[in-house]
Fold:
Amino acid sequence: MPLILPKSDSIQIREVWNDNLEEEFSLIREIVDDYPYIAMDTEFPGIVLRPVGNFKNSYDYHYQTLKDNVDMLKLIQLGLTFSDEYGNLPTFATDVDDDSHTCCIWQFNFREFNVNEDVFANDSIELLRQSGIDFKKNNEDGIDARRFGELLMSSGIVLNDNVHWVTFHSGYDFGYLLKLLTCQNLPDTQAEFFNLINMYFPTVYDIKHLMKFCNSLHGGLNKLAELLEVERVGICHQAGSDSLLTSFFRIQVGPHFPVKSKFMIRGKPECCGLLHVHSLLCQTRHVVRFVLVFMRAFDLTLQADSHPECPKHIHIFKTVNLVSLWHDCKIT
Structure:
């Protein structure tokens, strides 16, 4: 039976602009304790720079690519979908005169990017334009990034061990959020970058990397929706709709993992995270047995052919208390 998201008339994408920013953050502060799973997606002007020079390894090159682009470019849109551990979304009354309620997600529109002045990747901006993003309206009515960073810092959704961030191929997403939170360029090294992620976003799940452990799931967000026969709410390539899909996959993708074995890791990380293209990975350095608890909603399992004797890198990103360390892991 196809997996179907609630219809668009039962989910409201709350558009956030400069004039309602503080009001919307007030709502977010009220619901974060009850809906601590936050799926996130960003829209930005693409990738315009490729670094030149000598790099120690491909991970250093990919991190430098991310840093150079995030430092130069400006965030256009951020989508946040809050849910509880079972996938339920927060609801708000739609009419004071009756008892009807609507599920809500948030879409933040930023003012800084100017299509007439700033550097961008043509294909990325054309795709966003076709998806309905009005760059002129963003310039005129959009959110001031510094004010957003201040409100985000005091919102209760960062620096909070009880909040779980759910992402899909999230390197650039976290790069732009860190830039907003710190009001600074990204750090010079990937180790410092991951230290900041560990601090601001203590628990992170990247759906893209969990898909690597499943025979039947592959591709990007839209491809995954197609494979799982998920009906999208909202507009493709807008951050609110994409964050909702990411949230939905947290709950629904579990049964599609193979059932022969389970691979779980737990423990304190003793290695530095690495960046691979747009994704967050962890590098193994120690021989430790760990168990990964992905989520209660997931039955995360491991493909037999994706468990070589001693792989160098594990394509799961989990910060703070989880790291992908292999030796002596039991597969049942």
